[in-house]
Each structure stands twice: as structure tokens, then as C-alpha cells.
Amino acid sequence: MAKILEGKVVIVTGAGRGLGREEVLLLAKHGAKVIVNDMGGSHDGKGEFHGPADDVVKEIKEMGGEAAPNYESVTDFEGAKRIIDQAINTFGKLDILVNNAGILRDKMIFNMEESEFDYVIAVHLKGTFNCTRHATNYWRAESKAGKPVSGRIINTTSDAGLLYNVGQSNYGAAKAGIVAFTLIVAKEVARYGVTANVVVPVARTRLTTEATPSLAPMMGKKEDFEKRYGYDVLGPEAMAPLVVYLASDDAKDITGQVIRVVGGNLWLMHSWKSSEPVKRTPKGFWNPEEIGTPLKELVAKAPPREELAGIIMGALS
Ligand code: NAD
Known about the structure:
The protein is α/β, with parallel strands linked by helices. It has twelve helices and eight strands. It has an eight-stranded mixed sheet with strand order 3-2-1-4-5-6-7-8, sandwiched between helices. The two termini are 30 Å apart. Nicotinamide-adenine-dinucleotide binds next to helix 1, helix 4 and helix 7.
């Protein structure tokens, strides 16, 4: 196997389980030295356990790779700095940051507690900000000092935020926020040799089985998928090859993109698009009595919104 990340230093947050675990294992197999961050809590973010991060570090070392565990919560601004500093102090630098840590606290909006909104935003959106803020500050300083920088930010969104899953207004808002955040950051850091992209997974992990009962039946069983489709289409290892590629030097010109992978299916997601404008005649501001008719026509002509179930069914076909 050609190793395309030899000499690179990577942080993956939430790398003790699920998608992050698969990503960090493949990054390490491709020669990267890795910080395996995971605070190890339950799927709704309760508790802290070192086991998940420690197990992945052990696995990487057993296959001859270099890895160190980190147990910080990405919700903590200073803790996020300690994650970035650990990479620099342990392996001499940082090249790639994968923001992947995640939890769920699903509720319909009318039943949602303030804490269920706040903590989901804290882990996903604020956590992504925290790590990105410290990493970009480091890369900017390196670039200004005349050192070569080939930085990579790979953030994780969800169809919950792009296609709007019922019961996930907190999570969807955080994940949609991560897209806007990343696309703005991509513009801000381009001059320092850093790219920023967003990945959109759909896979069988505890977040889609234990934490989201509505999705669980669609996730099925690994053995059944292998028997039926020849491979485990919804296996959590599907996203890792894209993450490895985006981390590589070959991907230096890919930035500000939102990319979904499910099994062997790859999509580029397009952002918000404006319809053709309806221009008022005579020129001037609309008034409330007249704006309803053109607005209803625009809504009637709007393309239908995609649904997550349709994406999953399409990936299986
Ligand atoms: P997972 O629960 O298997 O893994 C998430 C990991 O993040 C856990 O090991 C957990 O301990 C860790 N974590 C949680 N809060 C943390 C914190 N504050 N600091 C550090 N680590 C923390 O879930 P997963 O499905 O692998 O999810 C990974 C990412 O992918 C999440 O951001 C999730 O929202 C996103 N995602 C997953 C799917 C899917 O289909 N599984 C779909 C869309 C998006």
C-alpha cells in the first residue's frame, strides 16, 4: 500500500469510536503520526472514560504506527488548545485537524431542555470552533515565520443539518453551522496554505443505532449487508478514505467543499442557491398586499427537498 501521509501529524477528535476511530486508523496506516482525542462518554455526552482513546492508540502502536491519546473535551476552549499543543509537543508540528467528536440529545423542539440545546451546540459547533481556532492560529504563525504550511481542516457535518431531520433541531443547527463556519474559514486561511472542507457521513455507529431509534431500522446488520450487497454499505469505515485523501498533499486545491460518502457512493453537496429573482414593476419595495402572489409562485416552482431516507435507499441501490 502506498503511504500518502508519511511524516504528517494529525489530530482526530472523537477518535475512540465509530467514524473517528476508522479515520484515525487509516490515517495512521498511511504513515501519519496521530493524536487520538476522545473523552469517552456515552452517546449523549455523559461521563468520561479513557478506554476508547487508549484502545485505539494501542491498536495503532501494535501495527507499528505512532499515536498518543488525549482525553480533553472539545467543548473546553483551553482544553482544545491543549490538544493542539500536545500534537506540536509530541510530534513536533501539526498538519491536519479532523473535527469529528459528536453526541446526540434528540427531542422535538417543544420538549427540548435548554441544556439539550446548549450541550449539542457546545460539542459540535463550539468544539469545532475551539480546535480550529487554535490550529489556525498555529498555522498562521508558522506561515508568517516563513515556514512551509500544508494545513488541513476536515470538519464533520450531517444530513440532519443539510436535509433537516425531525427531532434534531439542536444537532441540525450545530451541523449546518459547521458548514457555514468551515466555508468562511476556508476563505480566511487560504493565504496561509490551509484548506478547510466538510464531510457528510451516513454510517452504522452508536449515534445512528442507539441514539436515533428512527434511523436504527435502516442501518441493518453488517452481515446482512455483506450477504446482500457484497460489502457493508453502511459500515463506518466508508468515510476514512476521503479523510485520508483530503489530508494529503494531492488535495491542496480542494477547499470549501461539502462532500458526502455512503459506502462506495460519493457526492459533492451544492450550497444554497437563489431562484431567479421576481422583480417588482414599477421599481420599488414590495408591499404586503402584493408580495404573496409572486412568493407562492416561487414556492410552487421550488425543487423538492431531498430526504435522508431517499439518500440511504439510493446508496443501497
Ligand atoms: P460515535 O458515538 O461512535 O463516536 C463519537 C465519539 O466522539 C465518541 O467516541 C465520543 O466519546 C466522542 N466525543 C463525544 N463528545 C466529545 C467531546 N466533547 N470531546 C471529545 N470527544 C467526544 O459517533 P459517530 O457516528 O462515529 O460520529 C462521529 C461524527 O460523525 C459526529 O460528529 C457525528 O455527528 C457525525 N455524523 C455521523 C453520522 C452517522 O451516520 N454515524 C452521520 C452524520 C454525521
